[in-house]
Amino acid sequence: MAAGVAPARLRVPALGLDEPLVGLGVQADGTIEVPGDAGTAGWLRASAVPGRTGPAVLAGHVDSATGPGVFARLGELVPGDAVDVDLADGTTVTFDVVDVQQHDKDDFPTAAVYGPTPVPTLRLLTCGGVFERDRRSYADNVVVFAVART
Q1: Do residues 12 and 73 make contact, with C-beta atoms less than 8 angstroms apart?
Q2: Full-prediction pTM beyond 0.90?
Q3: Secondary structure (DSSP) of 54-92
Q4: What angle do CA 75, 35, 112 make, to 5 degrees?
């Protein structure tokens, strides 16, 4: 894999998910930018390239006012499920889910999600829990932790 190759597509067979990826940045407040469309998943460009040492971070919406989002079923993944990331150079990196967690947004596991790892890892992020109408936001985040298949 060439240096700087971006991920182009996310495939999660257990969920029937096969979607292109867009690049995501970091907002002024330090939080991850979210895709502008509920049906789109994105890769945090400040994170590792999938297959490189460290956590590659992908994010997507759970839903929208018009229906389910790209990561609507993310919480259904279980350890052992495969997650494939196709890179722009034509290669594919396969990850195996090792854990699925749900955390209150006020207790987000920042170090576990974004901190360094000694091997290639993947983090999939979306919202979850109770929808708080007054805040127009979900109370929790769902985080899938996966490790590159060797």
Answers
A1: no
A2: yes
A3: EEEEEEE-SEETTEE-TTTTGGG--TT-EEEEEETTS-E
A4: 50
Q: Is the dihedral of CA 4, 8, 12, 13 positive or negative?
A: negative
Instruction: Please say whether the beta carbons of 43 and 51 come within 8 A.
Output: no
**Residue % of the chain over a pLDDT of 90:** 81
Cα–Cα nearest to 98, from 61, 140, 148, 150 = 148
What tokens does 81 get? Answer: 């499920």
Query: For residue 133, what are the contacts with CB-CB under 8 A and spacing of at least 6?
Result: none
Dmax of the chain from CA atoms?
Answer: 46
Closest CA to 97 of 14, 8, 23, 41: 14
Residue 44, pLDDT above cutoff 70 = yes
Q: Taking the CA atoms of the chain, what radius of gyration do you get in angstroms?
A: 14
